[in-house]
Amino acid sequence: MYEPIDQSFFEKDTLELAQQLLGHYIVHEQQTGLLVGRIVETEAYQGPEDRAAHSFRNRRTKRTEIMFQKPGYAYTYQMHTHTLLNVVAGSIETPHAVLIRAIEPVLGMEQMRLNRGAHVKEVNLTNGPGKLTKALGITMQYYGHHLLDRPLFISQGEGRKEIAVSPRVGIGNTGDAVHYPWRFYEKDNPFVSKYRL
DNA sequence: TTTAAGATGCCC
DNA sequence: GGCATCTTAAAC
């Protein structure tokens, strides 16, 4: 039923990929069962020109190294107490990534509740980049994992509604980059994260 | 070796 | 609005 998508899917312009990811599934096959979420919000980060990107000015470190590889790898990193998940984008040596900011629970909601806490309302289970990784059980162990490989992969979706666009969330102090319209989400979807400065 | 900062989220 | 709490990078 859920099968990894083709490598060619990742090989497109980064802004295009960020939009194309909307409506596709993230699948995590765990011992406890299948966890599936439908991607409803993404953001593009395009080093070396993009001041908000970790790879700004081709900064190449242990953390950013995966962004210089071929597209389709998972770039996970720790943000305070949370793990955030990116899909590496752009050709080799072009350090782009697409941050997955929100998903809509499709399968395994019981386990997602266990991962997130029983008192959390359904709409708040996965409506943020740190929330969805916790719900899906995604940790730093997936840094450098390729998203065509089980147990964590992208799977073909069944389409999406209208795409809305906005500036990216939570990038203060990055000059012009603050205004780039590189956040994409499915219009009117209740699982999209709250916009913050 | 030490320190600061961060693509967040939860609680007060 | 404060603060948790972890990884990395850059300062010293």
From TrEMBL:
Biological process annotations from GO: base-excision repair
Presence of the UniProt keyword Hydrolase in the record: yes
UniProtKB keywords: DNA damage, DNA repair, Hydrolase
InterPro entries associated with the record: Formyl_transferase-like_C_sf, MPG, MPG_sf
Keyword DNA damage on entry: yes
E.C. number: 3.2.2.-
GO molecular function, one term: DNA binding
Family: Belongs to the DNA glycosylase MPG family.
NCBIfam families named among the record's database cross-references: 3mg, PRK00802.1-2
Protein name per Swiss-Prot or TrEMBL: Putative 3-methyladenine DNA glycosylase
Organism: Pseudogracilibacillus auburnensis
